[in-house]
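Homework-ish question, so no full write-ups if that breaks the rules, but can someone show me the predicted structure for this set?
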Amino acid sequence: MSANNKAIEIRDLHYSYPDGTQALRDINLDVLKGESVGIIGPNGAGKSTLLLHLNGILRGSGKIKVMGTEIQDSTLPLVRSRIGLVFQDPDNQLFMPTVFDDVAFGPINMMLPKKEVDAFVKQALAQVGMSDAIERTSHHLSFGEKKRVSIASVLSMRPDILVLDEPSSNLDPKGRKELIALLKGINKTKIIASHDLELVTALCSRYIFLDKGALVKENSTPQDLADLF
Amino acid sequence: MRHFFIDKYSGIDSYVHRIDPRVKILGVFALILSIILTPAQAFLSFVLFFSLIAALIVLSKIPVGFIFKRSLVVIPFVLMVTAFIPFLKEGEIAGGYSLGSLRLTVTYSGLMVFWNVMIKSYLCVLSMIVLMTSTRFSDFLKAMERLKVPRIFTMILSFMYRYIFVFEDELMKMRQAKESRSVGGPKHVHIKALAHMLGVLFIRAYERGEKIYLAMCSRGFTGEVHTISNFQIKRSDLYFIVIIAGVLTGIRLIGI
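A: Not a homework solution, just the prediction itself:
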């Protein structure tokens, strides 16, 4: 396994919250390019905390490499444009007055020229089937629509890796099915944290089980998953 | 949840809606300035100002009832401030009340100040309502940015506009949860619960702010928000600004 086919490389990651609670301990994880990895585990296992480390929002001890670049203060802008992190609550992800502004927020921060921003926004919205909503305001969208626009808001940055935190939470069965189909169609390295086993098994080729901040089991099979819960 | 109290009619199509938001803001600003600078006794001017605003309302196709209802919201606040002016100003006495040993008098100059404040604030509020109901709030913010209003103000307004609805929903859900468990009990308990709810709402707003900030950082935010707009001055925008300038000058010349 050569180093340059790894999308993400985590070595000896430890993290404690400011109050001293240990949230992540001794995490070692490799994710290959093009792979889809599911991170599963009970509430409070540290799934979201781990995801926040992937783009350097949280910084624990240990080393993390994203597409071969180690996360440091100087590499944060690069890393954040390579990793698209979709938060669980779309009301936190979508904070601009219109859908266009939200989807354009990332590309504008990447200092892309206006023409490219326009093109990237339109393409990202088309990819999630929300082209018609470009002029709308986020709070007038339904929950499922907000979720799609949230995904578009990171796709517009053309990341190599898509990271999703509980993508199916609060979605109705139809919305969930559509989301699974949508994510299946996105050809990128994917990391999905969820306790929706059906979604994870439909989308991921490999599963990682996290409990009390530690990797309990790597490379689980669907059968293992069923036994765990 | 759908909330309409800010942009209920901002999506309809009319001449006033199509005017470039920057031009509209400048036009309304000029209108408000002229109203404020008009002497109180220039009654004709106020009639003309009112006609101009009425013409804009008709052109904007926004229901008159909606604008009227909205304009009434402001009146009580103005009245609270101005109600005492006629009694306090000294001058020629127009009339009075006798309340035992206390005598209240109303003076002509006091009434004039009262009229001055009332008519001007009402006309200004009407103009603002026409501006805000005929412009999408997001366009309004972008126009303010392009007019070099400090970004910190436009960002605060932008976040307020985005999240006021979210918090309204949260408060509504908390109230429903409270009502579901409220079966009688003394009144002060309910008031206390309301106070706790407001506290929780505040903490949630704070936490949400943190999370939004993380979401912003994840997408490359480094301290400055940039937006893109496609505003373009059209020929009709120039007509609008010329007509407004002409009418305002005309009122100034006729009215005094």
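Now go work out the reasoning yourself. Hint: The interface with chain B takes residues 52, 55, 57, 77, 80-81, 83, 85, 87, 89, 91-98, 101, 104-106, 108-110, 114, 117-118, 137-140, 153-154, 157 of chain A (CB under 8 Å).
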